[in-house]
Design a protein that fits this description.
alpha+beta; about 35% strand; Alpha-Beta Plaits; Acylphosphatase; hydrolase; single chain; about 35% helix; 3 helices; three-stranded antiparallel beta sheet; elongated
Amino acid sequence: MSALTKASGALKSVDYEVFGRVQGKDGSGYTEEEARKLGVVGWVKNTSQGTVTGQVQGPEDKVNAM
């Protein structure tokens, strides 16, 4: 068991896609900023269909906060 797992509990990985419009925000840019603040990792991209898709990984409580 890694030190990260021992220190913060279960790890979690979530795939997601966000639909709709977020006023005044770049979806992927906002997501990257929030992920850095929370200390989670993964990837995010804007799609040609106008959605934001990605994956987030980290301690369960922080992934849930995303």
